[in-house]
Amino acid sequence: MHKAILHDHLDGGLRPSTAFELAKVLNYSPLLETDDIESFFDRSDSSSLDDYLEAFIHTIALMQTEENLERISYEAAEDMHKNGITMYESRYAPFYSVNETLSPTKVINSINAGFNMAENEYGIKSGLILCGMRHDFKNVDLVAELAIENKEKIIGFDIAGPEYDFMPSLFKSSFQKIKESGINITIHAGEGDGVHSIKDALSNGAQRIGHGVRIIEDVNLKTGQLGDTSKELIDKQIPLEVCITSNVHTNMYKSFNEHPIKDLIDMGFNISLNTDNRLMSNTTVSKEMQIAESLGITNVEQLLINSASYSFLN
Ligand SMILES: [Zn+2]
Predict the structure, then answer these.
(1) What are phi and psi of 187, to 5 degrees?
(2) Distance, CA 93 to ligand 1 centroid (Å)?
(3) What are the helix (H) ranges across the chain?
(4) What is the SS3 string spanning 256-285?
(5) How many angstroms is it from 220 CA to the middle of ligand 1?
(6) Burial of 294 (C-beta count, 10 Å sphere; 0-12/13-18/19+)
(7) Span from the CA of 207 to the centroid of ligand 1 (angstroms)
(8) Distance CA 186, CA 208 (A)
(9) With CB atoms counted within 10 Å of each terminal CB, which end of the chain scores lower, N or C?
(10) Domains of the chain, first to last
(11) What's the DSSP call for residue 150?
């Protein structure tokens, strides 16, 4: 029985111990000057999304060589395996690692090399989703081109970064090209913006929605009446890649108890359980499962099993 994680960012999942080791080799002072690397990265009390995102500067700084990318990818897959996961979808914005000696194709190859090592050792299957950064129009287009050139080496395409004011339709031509190439599409939507953003993601070919939890705003919880977009998600059983802790840490919900995952499941939405950024959110698959259980979800393991059936790795 396969269990899958569908939404996990490679640059958000480094082990604190690895980050510290790599920082020492590079003499990367922001990390060397701190005495507690775990709390340095932990953004559970972040005051804003900007504060949350600042942490990524320091992981990306460590992801600038083939060797480091390979190690970080291997360890991510290894950690997933240790949490009982057999299919791991990882995502990354490849141009963050491009420099004078590292081409975009080398970035992809290095990540895949790490995944292959983990597969040989543990049998876990991993695949890479390329993220375009939506606040940078040119970047999205470049990542789309890169995805098409390397379509045999990747499993999907996504746009990440600030959602508000950066609707999927701004990148219509990129999504069109991606679709025509037969590459899977998932889109971050319904996190930093509302229902119209989810609707726009669907109309640009999203087969899954990253987060998507704000679809709850399209539902009348008292009467059970559904809006057009929530109806479409349920009718087509479009998977929502839900990441509970991340949503609380970026201040979407004040506490786990306010998170709508249970209501969404009860209403028949197709919900998957995910980690998003394990380092910044100080979380793991096991922790997310415990939180989901504490919210009254009875068969949490089944969510991971269901995820395997609509993984882009298939
Ligand atoms: Zn994400």
Answers:
(1) -135, 130
(2) 11
(3) 16-26, 29-32, 37-41, 49-60, 66-82, 104-122, 137-149, 172-180, 195-203, 228-235, 244-249, 261-266, 285-294, 300-309
(4) HHHCCHHHHHHCCCEEEECCECCCCCCCCH
(5) 27
(6) exposed
(7) 16
(8) 5
(9) N
(10) 4-309 (3.20.20.140)
(11) T
Please enumerate, as own/partner, the contacts of 254-262 that have beta carbons within 8 Å and a separation of 24 or more: 256/291, 256/294, 256/295, 257/295, 259/213, 259/295, 260/213, 260/216, 261/213, 261/292, 261/295, 261/297, 262/295, 262/296, 262/297
Would you tell me the crossing angle of helices 137-149 and 104-122 to the nearest 10 degrees? 60
Give me the average pLDDT of each 10-residue run along the chain (314 residues): 98 97 95 90 81 91 98 98 98 98 98 98 98 95 98 97 92 98 97 94 98 96 94 98 94 93 96 97 97 97 97 97
Q: What is the C-alpha to C-alpha distance for residues 89 and 91, in angstroms, rounded to an integer?
A: 7
Centroid of ligand 1 to alpha carbon of 222 (angstroms):
30
Nearest to 94 by CA among 32, 55, 35, 136: 136
Q: List beta partners, residue 242.
A: 273
pLDDT per position as a tens digit, 245-279: 999 988 889 999 999 999 999 999 999 999 999 99
Residues with active-site annotation = 191
Question: 133 CA to middle of ligand 1, Å?
Answer: 12
Please classify residue 13 by burial: count the beta carbons closer than 10 Å to its beta carbon, then call 0-12 exposed, 13-18 middle and 19+ buried.
Answer: buried
For residue 223, report the distance from its CA to the centre of ligand 1, in Å.
31
Do the bridges between strand 208-211 and strand 270-273 make them parallel or antiparallel, or are there none, so unpaired?
Answer: unpaired
Beta bridge partners of 276: 8
CA–CA distance, 246 with 243 (Å, rounded to integer): 6
Q: Which amino acid appears at position 314 of this protein?
A: N
